[in-house]
Amino acid sequence: MSEVVLRGFGWRHAGRRAWAVRDVDLHIAHGERVLLLGPSGAGKSTLLAALAGLLPEDSGEAEGTIEIDGLDPRKARDRAGIVFQDPQTQLVMARSGDDVAFGLENRGVPPAQIWPRVSDALDRVGFPYPITRSTAALSGGEAQRLALAGVLALRPGVLLLDEPTANLDPAGATLVRESVSGLTDTTMILVEHRVAEALPLVERVVVLEPGGGIRADGTPEMVFAAYGDRLADEGVWVPGFTIPPLKSATAATPDLVRAEAVSVLNRLAPVTLGVGAGEVLAVTGPNGAGKSTLALIIGGLLAPSAGRVRGFGDAKPPHKWRAATLTGRIGSVFQNPEHQFVTSRVADELAVGPRRLGRSPTAVATTVSDLLERLRLTKLANANPYTLSGGEARRLSVATALATAPRLLVLDEPTFGQDRRTWIELVTLLATLRDDGHGIMAVTHDDDFVQTLADRTFPLGTAPFQDPLPHRRPRP
Amino acid sequence: MTLAFQPVADPAAPLARRNPVAKLAAALLFSLPLIATLDPLTPAIALAIELALVPLFGLRYATLARRAWPVLVASLGLLVTMVLFSANRSGTLLLDLGPFDVTTGVLMSALGLILRLFAVAVPGVLVFATTDPTDLADALVQNAKAPARFAIGALAAFRLLPLLGAEWQMLTLARRARGVDAGRNPVAALRLFVSTAFALLVGALRRGGRLAVAMDARGFDSGIPRTYARRQSFQRADAALVAGAVLLSALALTVTITLGLFRPII
């Protein structure tokens, strides 16, 4: 177990004017388990990267000192282990056991010790498969457990977890938290924005102040009693702060788009479903049930292999419409916003759709400035969409779908990985759109989203499902 | 999703279980000398030897044919090219097509080229169909002294390849959702292709960067001499495989030279 000491530590990435993190004084004792909080942009990930020794001296400017057991983290790389968000880009090898062995080989561990340490690490995280299991066949949660085993096999004194569950569905996140909760013989620093789920894993909460310093440091009860309101306003998911439901007051009008017994080979069992104007329909269900596939079909992007889709009084199914026609009727928002960006400027991004519909230059300019204003993107009008933060990119991807004023919006996991502030903005915006008569279909794992906003829920199972009451919905 | 180059052969077959570096060296040493001659006999002998050895690699002929389909397509392309552009239109006329007359001379040159293509390609297909990529990387590092940073790095990048297919589909669908399509305009189609490919490249570079950081965080850049969890050994049988490949290649060339059919490329 290791001890972590920071004295007036700061780091500024080369070429940036602002410090990513600054004036941090922190002492973490042997075996302590700490949740590191702060609004987005407060420098949590930079701090973890510094502790992992992953900020080379020539990649920026440092201030103060940072030490693990009295050593510069760059020289004590074997004392820190770090797990990142995305399981896909942490696994190196094709077989699970080889992947855990990778780090041991790098550290020059004698071959005779490697395999016992591999199976020991796999046992500690509760990895259920043999070591020959293909890493490509693992679910997100299993892959992240394997990544954790790869780090634990190196026996780090301090374990750094940088939002290890942010890319996972609820079932996968539970798998990872179960693994982490069993680790008691290491110092641990966790960055996690879903605070309620993370609290059972830690005994101390440290809040970074954006712009420098530490705002709060203490037990969870102490910190949230004193700073809960402010943290919630800044976007941290503080437990106990609920949002009032925003359900529709009027009944939905007949379907904008209706799918009859649509299915896709090996991806989606036959489904019958309609989305009406003035309602929010939430499609829920386990991974692999075909939720995203259904969203692509309703969105006119994918042809079903059986069944039919009709909408907007058109004789042709949506997937046969010209792209310009489609975008004027149905707006799709993908799970990964970056898939949708086609230009190198935020403002241009919003102009693409209206231009394709042949709107006049003045009308396009009006639409663009309205949307920038509405989604708090005005300051970023000239930025490159690929440089935006997660929340900004999500707001932009929703704005691009709204630019052509489609009656129906289809969203895939719109609130996934968002902080509380962006979450509230999105949910409020969608409620307003619904009340203005838009139809909204959202594929989601997010229970809060369903509780707050959904007028109707369509649970998708692995067995064939029917839409029980196409035009009625339960009242809250 | 599985890797496109996962081995498909019986791993216990006598030649399939040889050291990957030995297999690779044997394939190169066997097929490279064949490039030195233009006659059709040498590649024909070589191909006959290769096909006779296929069962020793634990591979079925049907599997080999499935694996070698790009070579089949390429050989058809060669045939068409030769019929259209061959300068040598000697021999008996078989099909009267004006400037594209098909003669025995044209067919003989085409046959020579196609045989060479197969004789060089089949050993490569045999090696990759019977070798696990991990074993190849291990053997390259341990037996051929290739830098681990290169071999293991390439192996890790290789693992991300199947993601690109799914990524391409999402990018294409997302462009349609944005109202961007080419219709029947070929120039627009090309521009759309280039912009989608660029987005794919940006995504791939970012993922590659994240993977590199994660690998270094687990000590890939530690500078400590690596140890090997999986041992690859180069045994006498492996040396024999390489020597055998050289001998057989020399045999094929000797037969051609003895029969006076050798036509050096330069």
TrEMBL record, chain A:
Gene3D superfamilies: P-loop containing nucleotide triphosphate hydrolases (3.40.50.300). Keywords: ATP-binding, Nucleotide-binding, Transport. It comes from the Bacteria. Signal peptide: none annotated. One of its GO terms (molecular function) is ATP binding. The keyword ATP-binding applies. Residues 4-235, 251-476 form the ABC transporter domain. Belongs to the ABC transporter superfamily. This is ABC transporter ATP-binding protein. It comes from Paractinoplanes ovalisporus.
TrEMBL record, chain B:
It is a multi-pass membrane protein. It comes from the Bacteria. It is found in: Membrane. InterPro entries: ABC/ECF_trnsptr_transmembrane (IPR003339), ECF_transporter_component (IPR051611). The keyword Membrane applies. The chain crosses the membrane at residues 21-38, 44-62, 69-87, 107-129, 150-168, 188-205, 239-262. Keywords: Cell membrane, Membrane, Transmembrane, Transmembrane helix. This is Energy-coupling factor transporter transmembrane protein EcfT. It comes from Paractinoplanes ovalisporus.
